[in-house]
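Weekly puzzle thread! Below is a chain. First person to post its structure in token form gets bragging rights.
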Amino acid sequence: MHSTHFGYIILFWISLGFVLTACNNAVGMQPTPSLTTFDYQVRVQDTSTGEVIQGAEVIIEVGGLASHDGFTDNTGTARIFISADRVSQPGRVIVRANGYQSFERNIDLTPDALPDVVRLEPVPEPTATDTPVPPTAIPTNAPPTDTLVSPIPTNPPPATPLPTLPTEPATQAAQTSAPGSYALQLFGRTVEPTASNVCIAAGDTVTVTASGEIKTGNYVGYLGPDGAETFMLFGASVPIDEGYDIVQAFPHAAMMCRIGADDDWRLCGSNATFTADKNGCLEFQTNDIDKGNNDGFFDIRIEIAR
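Winning reply:
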């Protein structure tokens, strides 16, 4: 009986050893989780001061697929989560911020890399306008008269009429900007036309160039200053409804300009040169009636030759 009992004890410990070994093997064989996404970090700074820029929009484009976007936090950093199958592929980063020129650069998507630092250039302020020349003094053409000595004539000669000062040239000088370069931004959400405070005179040669992109809704997506008449939907080209255009003859969301509020809109797009046919201040607008879902802006540069 004792030997049988001892045999049971040996068998129990051997069985327990097999169970523990099987458990250890099962734990060791658990698969390691695979990486599905990684975050690409971009830090945005002011190139002049080195200070971080909060609220800047960061867009990552990879291989023609839908773009990934985000906004910088209070440290100036945006974290864009990208699928792991895009590792080491080339891409493009686009950064936009209010009051700064837009930025674009080609990149390589590398996980665990240090934040990509982007430095934005502030939009230059418009140069000062011409200072109007003060009008010359009006001559009286009348010699002083000593009324205590000289008597007042009975029939004085008719008074010489005072010359009339021309007012139109002085007004034109005060409202006309000096020849040179000017810059401003046109935001996609702005409903009313954007006044530039850049005023031209009839006969001036005006060149307008624009860059950047405006997001015009979830389906049409981002468009440049030249706008578009179609968009891609499920691999097919679909025309954009002209009912959403301010001027139906122009592409949707294209940049337009005019000389004063009473002028007709003209298509400027990304590059336009024209001769001014009147005096007035330039205004700009995107050819889109529904701006509630828009985002982004165009960088505009104006050249005046006189």
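Puzzle host: Confirmed. Bonus trivia for everyone else. The domain at 37-120 is CATH 2.60.40.10 (Immunoglobulin-like).
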